[in-house]
Amino acid sequence: MSNISAGIVGVGAYVPERVLTNVDLEAFLDTSDEWIRTRTGIRERHIAAVGDAASDLGVKAARAALEDAGVNPEEVDLILVATSSPDMILPSTACFVQEKLGIRGCAAFDLQAACSGFSYALAVGAQFVETGMYKTVLLVGADAMSRFLNWDDRSTCVLFGDGAGACVIQPVEAGYGVLASHLAADGSRSDLLKIPAGGSANPATEDTVRDKLHYITMNGNEIYKFAVRCIPDAVKTILEKACLTVDDIDYLIPHQANMRIIDAAVERLGIDKNKVIVNLDKYGNTSAASIPLAIHELHKKRNLKRGDILVLVGFGAGLTWGANIIRWL
Ligand code: UT7
After folding, report:
1. Predicted TM-score (pTM) of this structure
2. Ligand 1 atom with least separation from CA of 261
3. How many Å lie between the centroid of ligand 1 and the Cα of residue 234?
4. Ligand 1: residues within 6 Å at CB?
């Protein structure tokens, strides 16, 4: 292993123009703005335009990240897209992003770790740089979850939104960039959150379409209990790995799924609430896009300072979870 450090040198984000508010949902669903706000913290979410797929959102975030980094698309060695709402089952969404960026030749593949996708992708992408195999990795977290929602199922469809975030990873000064990553999964709990049909286990048939098996199904209560434990555990594990403590954290960026999950986790961790980044009120749960969207917001609005310690923590279907620590450049 070489001693190259890998860090984020540019950040970009994109959310579709169309906003769907809780009040809009009241018009066709047995729900209320009050229920959604108090149970989740979500006020509105963005929905991809007809004809737009995950790669259309992802490429806009990717272009913004490349511009922020001052890197030409031709310099990219690898495009890594974290998504669980790919444009198609094959080819990979990363290949569509490459084509839309107008470049050819560089490596491109998708990584599927659901809402933990960005944490996983950051760990994987950073390693390509740390080993010296690649100099410039373009990481994209892009999801158009609205395409897989059963709009008659009020327990899931109010939660998700569409969006994309992207980061450019390159070699950075030693001691900066990604300091540590922790990835984990528990496949015995795969039933809790899934899209039952459309894969090789249950290919599309008239029956699967009729039975609405191409949409997300979720045991919300079990995921909730898992998430409340998982966030503090993953954060503590990653802090230990990096020989840091909770007090060293400048910003905690948890996956944006539910405000109550974040509040409970924050209380268990004993971290100052002001250090915790929350934007789910505007976007809902954007799956693999939620963490990079939050990094982008932080980068643009609060002016991250050199040396700031960021802890990212994702959790989701699989079950999967992951955390990363970054020392900002
Ligand atoms: O990236 C990971 C993705 N998933 C998650 O993070 C999900 C984690 N889980 C959650 O966020 C919460 O469990 C939910 C928001 C999904 C549900 O909140 P809850 O407080 O656990 O509600 P519940 O499932 O216990 O349901 C309470 C009641 C039920 O009615 P009854 O049986 O008590 O009469 C539901 O039918 O709320 C009802 N309900 C709704 N009512 C109005 C469920 N969804 C809605 C809704 N509007 N949208």
Report:
1. 0.97
2. 11
3. 24
4. 31, 35-36, 39-40, 115, 154-155, 158, 218, 220-221, 223-224, 227, 257-258, 285, 316
From the CA of 220, how far away is ligand 1's center (Å)?
6
- For residue range 252-281, list pLDDT tens digits in order: 999 999 999 999 999 999 999 999 999 999
How far from the centroid of its chain's Cα atoms is residue 211's Cα? 29
In this structure, which residue's CA is closest to atom 48 in ligand 1?
154
The DSSP-derived string for 224-258 is HHHHHHHHHHHHHHHHHHTT--GGG-SEEEE--S-
Picking from 287, 317, 286, the residue whose alpha carbon sits closest to that of residue 192 is 317
- In degrees, rounded to 5, the angle at the alpha carbon of residue 214 between the alpha carbons of residues 157 and 27 is 30
Note the pLDDT tens digit of each residue in 59-106: 999 999 999 999 999 999 999 999 999 999 999 999 999 999 999 999
Please tell me which residue in 115, 157, 167, 230 is annotated as part of the active site. Answer: 115
Best mutation site among 32, 35, 39, 261 for ligand 1 pocket (most ligand atoms within 8 Å of CB): 39
State the virtual CA torsion across 37, 285, 46, 202 in degrees, nearest 10.
-120
Q: Which two tokens stand for residue 250?
A: 């400048």
Query: Residues of 163-187 as b/e, b for ≥16 C-beta within 10 angstroms?
Result: bbbbbbbbbbeeebbbbbbbbbbee
**Tell me, what's the pLDDT at 1?**
56
Residues facing residue 217 across a β-bridge: 194
Cα–Cα dist 116/123, whole Å:
11
pLDDT in the model for residue 2: 73
